[in-house]
Amino acid sequence: MASDMTDACVKRTKAAFDGGLQRLAARGVELRVSVPLVSMFNVLIEARTRSPALCVLEGEGQQQYHARADLLIEEVVGDMVSSLVSKKPGLDLADGYVSFVRQNQEVLRERISDELHTQKVFDLWYHRSVKALCVWLTDRMDLQLHVYQLKTLIRIVKKTYQDFRLQGVEETVLQDPSYVTLYNRLTVEEATLAVRAPGAAALQGVSMKDSDEEDD
């Protein structure tokens, strides 16, 4: 009975952890582990510490029940750690950033009364955005991007270009040296990945090639 109760406690803790992690990720792009999530790790540690004393059985099967509980706890802790440190194959980070930019573009467009000044703000905003991405990639010139990094950057670069063009940024500004460097680097990274992993499965259809055709 104690073994079954321990198993149930561990499984409920894992379910609560998964739910808490999803709610935390939904609040924004930046993920910071909350105190309740850390407490759930402590619950599992305590369960493992106490299971040998609770899940005992006299005779040959004395170790059977608490050993099973220990194994379950190890698996669950491993899954929880993976949930925190692993990058998912989706585009949540990129989409969150794109949404943030679009919302603030609309705010500036509505609140700044001088159209010429608004356009200067957008020009500068675009330039500094692509410059920051270019510097980040330049610092990693000798490193091949992980597929998650590549997907995220392609999405951000393409949507940044498209959205600022819709806001009236001129083509001469859009095609500044930083953007050209970004475009060339990401195109090379995409081609390299295509050689290592033929087909579109790795990038799930994300590509630098179809900037104008891609849906929002």
Structure explained in plain terms:
This protein has 216 residues and is mostly helical. It has two domains: 2-85, no CATH class; 92-196. It has eight helices and no strands. The protein has helices spanning 2-26, 35-54, 64-85, 92-111, 115-138, 147-166, 171-174, 177-196. Helix 1 runs parallel beside helix 3 (64-85) and helix 5 packs across helix 8 (177-196). The longest helix has 25 residues, at 2-26. It is elongated. The model has no long low-confidence stretch (mean pLDDT 78).
**How many E-type strands?**
0
Q: Would you list the SSEs in sequence order as H and E?
A: HHHHHHHH
Question: Spans of 5+ residues with little confidence (pLDDT < 50)?
Answer: none
- C-alpha Rg (nearest Å): 25 Å
Please tell me the overall pLDDT: 78
* Helical stretch tally: 8
Q: How many separate domains make up the residues? A: 2
User: What sort of overall outline do the alpha carbons produce when their principal axes are compared?
Assistant: elongated
Strand content: under 5%
> What helical percentage do the residues reach?
over 70%
Question: Which structural traits does this protein have?
Answer:
single chain, 216 residues, mainly alpha
Short description:
The protein has eight helices and no strands.
Secondary structure topology:
Blueprint: H1 2-26, H2 35-54, H3 64-85, H4 92-111, H5 115-138, H6 147-166, H7 171-174, H8 177-196
Helix pairs in contact: 1-2, 1-3, 2-3, 4-6, 5-6, 5-8, 6-8
Organism: Muraenolepis orangiensis (Patagonian moray cod)
Pfam family, one: MUN
GO biological process, one term: dense core granule exocytosis
